[in-house]
Amino acid sequence: MPELPEVEALKNFLAERLVGHEITRVLPVAISVLKTYDPPLTALEGREVTAVRRHGKFLDLLTADGPHMVTHLARAGWLHWKDRLPDGPPRPGKGPLAMRVALETGAGFDLTEAGTQKRLAVYVVRDPGEVPGVARLGPDPLADDFDEARFARLLDGERRQLKGALRDQSLIAGVGNAYSDEILHAARMSPFKLASALTPQETRRLYEALRATLTAAVERSRAVAAGRLKAEKKSGLRVHGRTGEPCPVCGDTVREVSFSDSSLQYCPTCQTGGKPLADRRTSKFLK
Description:
By secondary structure, the chain is α+β, with helices and mostly antiparallel strands. The protein has helices at 4-18, 132-135, 148-155, 162-167, 177-187, 200-221, 229-236, 268-271; strands spanning 22-28, 47-55, 58-63, 68-72, 77-82, 97-103, 108-113, 121-125, 255-258, 263-266. The strands form 2 sheets. Strands 5-7-6-1-2-3-4-8 form an 8-stranded antiparallel beta sheet. Strands 9-10 form a two-stranded antiparallel ribbon.
């Protein structure tokens, strides 16, 4: 799933190519992609894109005196830019294409989604706050006013484990499965440690790891073409998705805990005092 750094990079990529240009056609291919009906999708057509913004993992295209097009790429969605779109409308079918957006220049982008779980979502709204997922977002962890004190207040009394807390979009916007693993590895903390059990020193360490990990990922993605962002993300990850490989910090073997629909990766030496975490599906896990 694209997370804050990749969506930030897509925002910058699109801003360079969309702002100042007119949307001429918006062509839905998959019925499931459009989540709103008022304003209609056609309200975007004939309008100039004035800005591209990011809200957590959501992309927001602003149009002149018109609606916003807000997109969430979900787990298997992606955006493909084309300097020249194919002639003729796309044909509905069983392929991954979900929507096409065309500009007056002949350029534009396709939204695609792999797999059978169709969760890619596009909203056409007068205000991004009308999108339920945007309305419930917590603060952006890279915002200028997101300081250590604010982070500590968010975690105060939080009874969940750190892994779950970091992924909760209503607590902190933009962090998902991959970067929560990376942040906890950088902070040298167990994913199952309770947020409420953190000492002030640990809270500071986690805050610094959060900011540093996301900032570094954004910098790596800067100026990377949209089509290469997935590969760039994977190349920068130290533990997530690297089960069985050596930890780049200590050399221990990266291990995994599996869940029903996802998994986490961690380094026992760096994060759990050398103790492997038990699979929470079958037994107790390390606190």
